[in-house]
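Worked example 3 (structure in, sequence out).
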């Protein structure tokens, strides 16, 4: 930068801009050398975020260096739970991509914001950004990202109980990935379908899809994908009440989660370990893992995870016949699901309440809770992902009739 006269406004601006670009190049070199999962990044990422923010301020001049850094940093920011800081960068990045006419980048930014919104339990934002990505991908003929957004939106719908809608999106995406012969997308979509069929109680089909996903990820040495596959197999075996298989697969999933530094999913897997130990009535282990998961969900302000933890505490106390603790935990769980406006969770807790009262010999109270659950269930469709809850309510009704 020889010949720069810092007394001149134009030279000062140029000097500042060149400094930003050099800083961006420095960070590109760091990530190329050390990778986005390096231990050093844990300490240095605030400086990288500042560099990206300055790069976005340069608009077109900074975009060629800034956009690749955002893509590279995304897994680190998502897995470590630095979500609000990440949202503050992704939103202006998406807006800038739109202004610059960078349609491929705009699709990617929309997908990143959708993924982040899903992690933050923000359903409306999740749907908004995935639909934006789908629309843009169709306009530009980007079939890979079209399928990517469809399968991810499908998975989101699974979590929210809209299984018919989810199956249409995931099967559509799987057809595209098969045409592209894309194993990455194929494995993720089979994993999503495995979760969907688990929710429908179709155990054999769920296991088939999940094991196929794991086989693909293992062949590709994909630790992140393997984490999801084994985690969901663990959940499947929990539903099947096969505690030993649930423990084995959940432990494998936790190993991979720790390898890739995934905090949120590690907490979910830890909670699943607690559930498996509860099935084995090993109370010390069940409480230990449930407490560990609860602490991480609290640190991440992840209200959905905290509601699940409350469910599991209630079931632990119920199985131990600690009725007082079970009562206040069920009350807290019911409030948590209502605060989230999550009907599935709300109805499930009502069935727990019915079982709680039945186990205490309070049949009239059990009937009241079951009637409330059945009333809400009648407002739902069996194709909306409530199959297991319908089955649960029917089983409680039979038990009440027998007693």
């Amino acid at each position: 930068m020889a010949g720069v006269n810092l007394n001149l406004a134009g030279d000062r601006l140029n000097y500042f801009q060149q400094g930003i670009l050099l800083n961006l190049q420095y960070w590109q070199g760091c990530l190329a050398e050390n990778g986005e999962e390096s231990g050093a990044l844990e300490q240095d990422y605030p400086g990288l975020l500042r560099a990206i923010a300055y790069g976005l301020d340069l608009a077109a001049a900074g975009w060629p260096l800034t956009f690749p850094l955002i893509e590279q940093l995304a897994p680190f920011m998502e897995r470590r739970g630095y979500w609000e800081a990440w949202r503050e960068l992704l939103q202006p990045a998406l807006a800038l991509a739109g202004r610059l006419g960078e349609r491929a980048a705009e699709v990617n930014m929309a997908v990143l914001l959708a993924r982040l919104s899903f992690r933050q339990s923000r359903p409306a934002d999740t749907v908004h950004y995935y639909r934006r990505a789908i629309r843009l991908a169709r306009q530009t003929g980007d079939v890979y990202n079209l399928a990517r957004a469809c399968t991810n939106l499908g998975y989101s719908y699974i979590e929210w109980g809209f299984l018919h809608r989810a199956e249409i999106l995931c099967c559509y995406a799987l057809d595209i990935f098969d045409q592209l012969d894309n194993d990455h997308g194929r494995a993720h979509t089979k994993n999503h379908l495995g979760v969907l069929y688990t929710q429908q109680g179709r155990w054999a089909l769920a296991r088939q899809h999940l094991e196929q996903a794991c086989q693909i990820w293992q062949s590709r040495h994909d630790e992140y994908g393997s984490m999801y596959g084994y985690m969901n197999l663990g959940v499947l075996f929990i539903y099947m009440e096969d505690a030993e298989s649930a423990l084995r697969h959940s432990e494998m999933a936790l190993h991979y989660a720790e390898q890739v530094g995934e905090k949120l999913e590690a907490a979910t897997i830890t909670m699943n370990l607690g559930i498996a130990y509860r099935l084995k009535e090993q109370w010390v282990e069940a409480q230990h893992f449930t407490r560990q998961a609860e602490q991480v969900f609290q640190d991440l302000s992840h209200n959905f995870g905290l509601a699940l933890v409350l469910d599991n505490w209630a079931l632990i106390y119920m199985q131990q016949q600690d009725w007082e603790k079970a009562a206040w935990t069920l009350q807290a769980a019911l409030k948590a699901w209502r605060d989230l406006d999550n009907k599935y969770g709300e109805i499930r807790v009502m069935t727990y309440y019915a079982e709680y009262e039945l186990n205490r010999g309070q049949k009239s109270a059990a009937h009241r809770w079951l009637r409330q659950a059945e009333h809400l269930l009648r407002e739902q469709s069996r194709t909306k992902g409530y199959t297991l809850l319908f089955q649960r309510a029917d089983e409680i009704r039979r038990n009440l009739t027998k007693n």
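Notes: The longest helix spans residues 9-34. The two ends are 87 Å apart (CA to CA).
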